[in-house]
């Protein structure tokens, strides 16, 4: 009886082996693929970061190089008069770096100051800021302007600049533009003839009998017979206003 059992046992093993032999290579491959899919589905999935060009920019405010090195735009931002996300294109940043490396001392200083102000803005809490890359490096000056206008238009944003020609070109193409110089001009004090003004006389005018002072917004005011009042703060009355290419000049008489 013991011998019969020993003979039956290998028969069962052969039966199992025959079942394995029934699986074809194609079936084994399909089974392996299914196992792999199940294992992959159980692994934590990493989300791919969107490419910069695919990011959605809402209320984008695109800063031009001229506005950055001018610096006044940062005061406006600090006051909270502009809301949205402030954007600097890679082409604008490259142009700014080029200015910061200039051999001209004044340009170099203004460029470095602009870079410092951008870095300070980037770190300011509560302000949304973005360096935006869209293959804009190595562009010429005109190309940089065109690239800025195209991008702002595509993203339905606005441009902040001090460049008169850029502002005009962008406006023609339907892009909203804020020209810092135009904004400053509109905010100047509108003194009219007959209005009394309190002013400090700083120096002698072109005519040696005149004294010259400046209002808080930088408007020049010429004081007739004000030569002897240099260094003093006096009351004057505006007699006439002269509009020049450089701005307005007020002429006044002592009260």
Describe this structure in words.
- Helix 5 crosses helix 6.
- A hairpin with a 6-residue loop joins strand 6 and strand 7.
- It contains nine helices and ten strands.
- With 255 residues, the chain is α/β, with parallel strands linked by helices.
- The protein has two domains: 134 residues, Rossmann fold, CATH 3.40.50.1010; 59 residues, OB fold (Dihydrolipoamide Acetyltransferase, E2P) (Beta Barrel).
- The mean pLDDT is 82.
- 44% of the residues lie in helices and 24% in strands.
What count of domains describes the coordinates? 2
In order across it, which strands form the biggest sheet?
A: 3-2-1-4-5
Which CATH C-level class of the largest domain is it? Answer: Alpha Beta
Largest sheet: number of strands, sense, barrel closure: 5 strands, parallel
Q: Structural class per helix/strand content?
A: alpha/beta
- By CATH, the topology of the largest domain is Rossmann fold
Helical content stands at: 40-55%
Shape: elongated
Task: State the fourth-level CATH superfamily of the largest domain.
Answer: 5'-nuclease
**What is the C-alpha radius of gyration, as a whole number of Å?**
37 Å
The low-confidence runs, each spanning 5 or more residues with pLDDT under 50, are none
Question: How many β-strand runs?
Answer: 10
Helix-strand sequence? HHEHHEHHEHEHEHEEEEE
Q: Counting H and I runs of at least 4 residues, what is the number of helices?
A: 9
The average pLDDT score comes to: 82
Our measurement of the CA-to-CA distance between the termini, rounded to an integer number of angstroms, reads 140 Å
Using the 3D structure, state the CATH architecture of the largest domain: 3-Layer(aba) Sandwich
